Task: structure prediction
Amino acid sequence: MTAHRISLIPGDGIGPEVIDAGFPAIEAAARSVGATLQIERLPYSADHYLKTGETLPDPGFKHLRDETDAIFVGALGDPRVPGNEHARDILLGLRFRLDLYINFRPVRLIHPRLSPLRAADRAVIDFVIFRENTEGQYQGIGRAEEVGSPNERQISEEIHTRKGVTRIVEAAFEWAGRHGKSRVTMSDKANAVPWQRIWGEIFNQVGARHPAINREHRYVDALAMELVREPERFQVIVANNLYGDILSDLGAGLVGGLGVAASANLHPGRAGLFEPVHGSAPPLAGKNVANPMATALTGALMLEALGYPEAAKRLERAVSTVVAEGPTTPDIGGHSTTTEVGRAIAEAI
Result:
């Protein structure tokens, strides 16, 4: 059996709960195709930071970079660390230092009752978002001027490089081609932010190399409206870091919320970082009510990245079965616990 080294960072809040509930199903899906996951749990979290002052030490980073096949983060964020130093160093630090330039967010409606849209019972909502993950405003470049005065200015710089834009757009088109998609939509706000015109230029250049795939452009505000009005027409969306982040959460809202939202941070040929989108949700921690489906679906992305598409499909089908038949957690209309739902997904494998 093939063994893969998986580094778990359960993290904060509901993170350890959803990891404990969701990972048995991920392991069962892997075993079903002859793969073994060698799992290690790492302590990096708010607790660890408050006890030791460490966020992600250099030896820990080098271990994750050189000695693991995938990194899985439960959730990060804790009110005891108001500056979020540990989360920034661990999550954003790994994204930037490992150059995980693809943030891949699938948006698929598992069951019509999960969507707030009236037309969801007759619409197939199934698209993916390629969010550029290492540039834009999230690089944290900026400055403060005349702080505390009436003329105070907080300045944030937005960086887009030809290399960075080209590779995320290329990734979107390549994925579309491999998965039989016929259209890629690029979103920017170049009518108001001229420096974003590089996205349109490169989108057309890359798209010309993929003549079998149609390309279209939408300004981000118009796209947000269209995603609510007609989500079924979209297949692949590519956008910068900030817009991709916002559109991804809008997409999650269309199909059931953050409890069923998965994501992967990728750089082909390198270990990926896999992360349920829901965050640490401190008010829910310890109550055994958080939804572990996002963890399971994120596990499906991890299994696919490791080379096991059939295991990923089995895990996705198991989640769909549990959504349709129960049990489910309160966020999607059920009354069951995190533990019960996780167990049901594993049994459905």
In short: The chain has a mean pLDDT of 96. The CA atoms of residues 132 and 241 lie 5 Å apart.
